[in-house]
Each structure stands twice: as structure tokens, then as C-alpha cells.
């Protein structure tokens, strides 16, 4: 049997399986239950949040031979063929490779014909924003009065490029980036089902690195599994995504507090030798300052550096880190840019600056 990737194997098959999109799944579930599905849906959102997956679930729910409430049965011939990508009445069209009006007209010429197998023909047009203006004009005529036996689902990562005339014919659902906690929970669920040991911190690192994309998280998870098929640990994940250990960030902040420019420079030189990403370094510094602020102001958690600075001064340090991050592309080298930012944070003292202004 051919190998199936983790992302494909664990792709949601029903609305209940979809992670991190409760409002969208509830709306579609209600429409299926009440038989009020709109003829044209527009699904938008960043990569890996479930646009194509949701479209296929809708296609299954429409044509399933034994619908279970609002979920497809996953056992009938229709469900199996859609899952395997060989259902005759599901047309998945990549707009990026079929931008010409001739391509669009060729597709739309087939719309009037009845479905070959199921109840409805489903047209999934992915990256629909790539269509030409002439193609949109041709599509608009069909979307104004689509045949009853046709379901259109448009998907894109750039909805701002879709003409307003097209949007006005659609029910628009914007899929949000999936929360870190939801992604981590799903990764843990998969690892448990695959009987692979894991460290909880490792799954949270995977989720954070995915930045809201479930597909990116599962791709990274597969990389981890290929390196260590029986155990996913934090050190392995940190190495794979080049994450900076938290103790290095704590040490740098300690050097900043001690105003030890030599220690900061030596640390940055060492990080350069270890191929540490300096953009990630400054980003992690800002993130750690945020954690210190939360610990100080909410008293809901403890932080080892909570007593080094008052909350107002941390705001200044945080701003310096963000400015340094933005300036990094303009620095002679990333190492010099990061080092100067950290030393600026170390030598700057608001009290001294206030005295200078008063004397002048």
C-alpha cells in the first residue's frame, strides 16, 4: 500500500472533524440540516486553514447516499470516491493555471448538463483571484442564476483581488488562522493515535511555528517523525525549526540588565557561529519581555526576571526590540544589527536622559 502523508491521512472528513473554525462549520451545518445551502460559497483565509478541505466536505454532504445528520457517512461509494479524488461530479479547478477566458468558458459550458452520478455537480475553483477580468465576467453570468443541480465553491488567499460583483453573489466565510492551542491539541491527538511518544512542549513548539496553519503544522510533524519515528521531543523540534533555547534569551536579558556590552557581543558572535537566526533572536527577546510584563501586571504567573525592571521600563525595552527587528534588513549584517539593538537596550537609561534634558 502506498504511503499516505500525515496531512492527507488526518485531513478532516466531516464538519465535526474540522479544527478551529466553529462559526463556519456551524453555519454550514445549519444550511445542510435545513437544506438551505447557498449556490455559491466564497471561502477565504491564509494557507492551511481548511478551505479546500471544507469544500470537499460540503461536496460529500450534498451527494452522500446515507447522510448522518449533517455529516457524510464516509462509507458510501460517493464519499469514498470524493475522498480518493475520483468523483465524476466534483470538479476541482486550479484558477492559477487556467486564467484565460477560454478556459473558463470551457468549464462553464458543462454547467448546464445534469450530474453524472450524484445529486449535484460541485465546482471548486481554487485561488479564484487568479482569474482574468474577462474570466470573471464570464463566471458572473453563471453565478447570477446558477442551475439548481450545481454548487459553486470559490476559494482564495487574496479576497481583495476578487471583483465586488462576484463577491455580491456569494456567501463569504473567512477562515481564521487556527489557534496555537487547537493546533497543539490536534498534533497530540494524532501522535496518540499513531502511538508515538511526545513531549507536550514539543507539540506547542510545532503549533507556534505553524502560525495558524494546520497543514504547516502537520508537515513539520511529519519531518519530526521522519527523524525520530518513535519519540517527538523538544530538543529535536528546536533543532529542526532552528528555535532558540529559552535559556539563551534569559541570559541575554540578564546581560542587558547588567549593561554588559562585552557579554552581549560575545553571545551574538557565538550565535552567529551556531547559525542562529537573528530575526528570531530579537523576536524571542520581545516575546520574553511580553511574558515578563504579563507576570508583573497580572500576577497570574511567575517569571525569573520579573524583579529586574519596572513595567514602564520594560515597555521601552520592548519597543527597542521591535524597532531593532524592523531595522534588521538595513543593517550591515544581521549579527551587527541584533548586537547593536541589544547593546542599545543595555546602555539606555531613561533617568539619565531625563537629567540631560533638564540640564539643557
From TrEMBL:
Domain AAA+ ATPase residues, every copy: 37-179
Gene3D superfamilies: 1.10.8.60, 1.20.272.10, P-loop containing nucleotide triphosphate hydrolases
E.C. no: 2.7.7.7
Catalytic reactions on record: DNA(n) + a 2'-deoxyribonucleoside 5'-triphosphate = DNA(n+1) + diphosphate
Claim: Nucleotidyltransferase is one of the keywords in the record: yes
Pfam families attached to this UniProt entry: DNA_pol3_delta2, DNAX_ATPase_lid
Highest rank taxon of the organism: Bacteria
InterPro entries found in the cross-reference section: AAA+_ATPase, ClpA/B, DNA_pol3_clamp-load_cplx_C, DNA_pol_III_sug/sutau_N, DNA_Rep/Repair_Clamp_Loader, HLD_clamp_pol_III_gamma_tau, P-loop_NTPase
Family: Belongs to the DnaX/STICHEL family.
Subunit structure: DNA polymerase III contains a core (composed of alpha, epsilon and theta chains) that associates with a tau subunit. This core dimerizes to form the POLIII' complex. PolIII' associates with the gamma complex (composed of gamma, delta, delta', psi and chi chains) and with the beta chain to form the complete DNA polymerase III complex.
NCBIfam families on file: dnaX_nterm
Known role: DNA polymerase III is a complex, multichain enzyme responsible for most of the replicative synthesis in bacteria. This DNA polymerase also exhibits 3' to 5' exonuclease activity.
Official protein name in the record: DNA polymerase III subunit gamma/tau
The organism of origin for this protein: Candidatus Comchoanobacter bicostacola
